[in-house]
Amino acid sequence: MRHLRVRRPVLLLAALWFALYRDHSGLVRVGLLAALLHECGHVAVWLALTRSLPVLRLSVRGVGLDVSGVHLSRRQAFVLALAGPLTNFALCAGTLAKMQLRASYWGYFFAAANLATGLFNLLPVGDLDGRRLLQSLWP
Question: For residue range 69-122, what is the model confidence (pLDDT) as tens digits?
Fold first, then answer.
């Protein structure tokens, strides 16, 4: 595919297979779903900002948008970086609100996974969204 770059696919697929194989509680699946929905938030904002399909990078470190070669204003970069964590926080809040009507372990796991994914991605290190947010704020 033209819009999907995979680095070390064998290592990525082996790690994913092993994690899912050993996941007897289902927590890895819920965490992967939260990460996928996080990236969907970024992709939705990317489509709204650029009107084009994004280039996704898959590696052992995770999935991310490849924004190299595309000029975004500081405001656009800020909104794009914030989209993923906001998606997770909205899903967490919506799930917890729904849990008031009918509670389940899966719902609490899903809410916790979204909260953890959103908070983790706000760390200002590496390729995480927190670093991109700070870069868009500093001149």
Answer: 788 999 999 999 999 999 999 999 999 999 999 999 999 999 999 999 999 999
How would you classify the pairing of strands 56-59 and 62-65? antiparallel
pLDDT tens digits along 34-70 = 999 999 999 999 999 999 888 888 776 777 888 877 8
Q: What is the number of other CB atoms lying within 10 angstroms of the CB of residue 69?
A: 6
Place of tokens 């719902």: 107
**Residue 22 to residue 44: CA distance in whole angstroms:** 32
Q: 114: closest CA among 36, 56, 58?
A: 36
Cβ atoms of residues 80 and 42 within 8 Å: yes
- Structure token pair of residue 120: 């983790």
Closest CA to 118 of 127, 129, 104, 107: 129
The DSSP symbol for 5 reads E
What H or E segment, with its residue span, contains residue 133?
A: helix 129-137
Q: Are 106 and 34 in contact (CB under 8 A)?
A: no
Does the pTM exceed 0.90?
A: no
